[in-house]
Design brief:
About 40% of the residues lie in helices and about 20% in strands. The protein is an alpha/beta fold. It folds into two domains: about 30 residues; about 160 residues, Flavodoxin domain (Rossmann fold), CATH 3.40.50.360. Strand 3 and strand 4 form a beta hairpin. Helix 2 crosses helix 6. The protein starts with a helix and ends with a helix.
């Protein structure tokens, strides 16, 4: 009985802490970073399961700018297990899927969003980065993931896939925790040293 009561008290303790943290995040105000002032901004993302799309749309509602989804010429299967198997093989081979062109020439700052697949940046985003000229542009990546994420490896993949003059610190958002996604995005924007 004592163990059960102890367990209940521990759960209540963590629940109270979580409630305070949620309220703290809900009261965050967005302060537009200087890097976005008077700049033409684009959000480009690839989303297979919808989580990255959700984050991209929330980001768009905060910073405005334009938003475009990376469209594959040949789509991946809807079945997550089939898609993961194909993606794993393509990552091993360094394959770049064909995507529809997105013109970035008129933009100064580009946010790029991607799920993390098998501890790597999604191949559609790699194709987008490699097929566009990011010279004189600022790149600000964001990622969703449900398994592990080696953040330094992911950032190296981004840096090696683009000629962007400036790649900023990424947002990594765990998919099971995105119920506060808008507040987390604002917190990231406010605390990132752009």
């Amino acid at each position: 009985m004592k163990i059960l009561l102890c367990g209940i008290y521990i759960l209540l303790f963590f629940a109270v802490i979580a409630i305070f943290k949620i309220n703290e995040l809900k009261n965050i105000k967005y302060n537009q970073p200087e890097i976005l002032l008077n700049k033409k901004t684009l959000i480009v993302y690839y989303s297979n399961g919808g989580n990255t799309k959700d984050v991209a749309q929330n980001l768009h509602s905060i910073i405005n700018g334009d938003i475009k989804e990376i469209q594959l010429i040949e789509k991946y299967p809807n079945n997550i297990f089939e898609m993961s198997k194909i993606a794993r093989e393509q990552i091993k081979k360094g394959y770049q899927p064909k995507i529809e062109n997105i013109d970035i020439s008129n933009y100064d700052v580009i946010f790029t969003g991607s799920p993390i697949w098998n501890f790597s940046v999604s191949l559609p985003l790699i194709s987008f980065l490699k097929n566009n000229n990011f010279e004189n542009k600022t790149l600000i990546p964001f990622f969703t993931y449900s398994g592990g994420a080696n953040k330094s490896k992911i950032m190296k993949e981004i840096e090696n896939s683009t000629n962007a003059k400036d790649v900023k610190k990424a947002l990594f958002m765990f998919e099971n925790g995105i119920f506060l996604k808008k507040e987390q995005i604002i917190n990231w924007l406010n605390n990132n040293e752009f």
